[in-house]
Please model this.
Amino acid sequence: MTRFTLPDALNVPFQGGPDDELNTLRLRYLKKELRENPAVKAGYIRQGVQAFLPGMQKLIDRLPKGSQLLITPSASNTNRIPVLLAVAMQKQRPDLQLINLREKMVRVLHETESKVKDNYAVRAVDPRRYRIHQQLVQRASVLHQAPLYLLDDSISEGDTTMMLHRELSRAGIHAQGGILTAVARERYHVRTSDLTRLYEKLLPHCPKDYSREALAQELYQVFAGFPRKKLLNFERSCSIGSLRKHPLQAFDFLRQTATYLVAASLDPHQVVQRLAQFQASQVRAESPERKRGVGR
Model:
């Protein structure tokens, strides 16, 4: 029997306002308005964003003093919700520092929006990709001097925010505070039981050139560390969605996505390895001997 092991270090914390029906509909409506009417007045969207704050109040209050919020960029350049959310949070907490990851700092390389959920053929060839510019990388040591968070309007499968978090880590910028959102549509990370269940469901349908070992490894690489909804949506698509009609696309998606993650140094093994190296460097920097200049 295949056994999966998920390191705790892989699970980036994510939290946000409640995923109730009203919040979900409000966010969906605001995003639709911005897509279809980019010229909509900021005051109108700002008013809608304000409605998320009561559900985030405890979260905002608990943020450490001087926390820094990295504001997630939009693939379409139309989503102003994260920026307006950050500004609204700063009005309540003037000590918060805002860093807008716009074109000069982070460039969005993928072409499709994250809303393309059940089209796994498209998602396999157009994964979430970002280019972290040197201007931001050079600020890494300063950014690490205060708690650092990634801010977005929502998290569901985590493809956008989790991948950006990993890209930032690869560039040497570690948002150890995790991910904050107005609406958290998932509360838990993928579990070992989820991976085992999906492995056993897919195993009987594996193509002849797909080994048991490859299936287990690629499931781990694609889903480990992500919100459960990413795996559950994939599993659902295999049962009643597009992947049931085109089962080979499920394995193509796993293979292509895992290959990309490994090639881009964004797979779970390298993510955990980078975090361990960063934490070790932080311990060395904070050691009494280092502070006193011993050995210099």
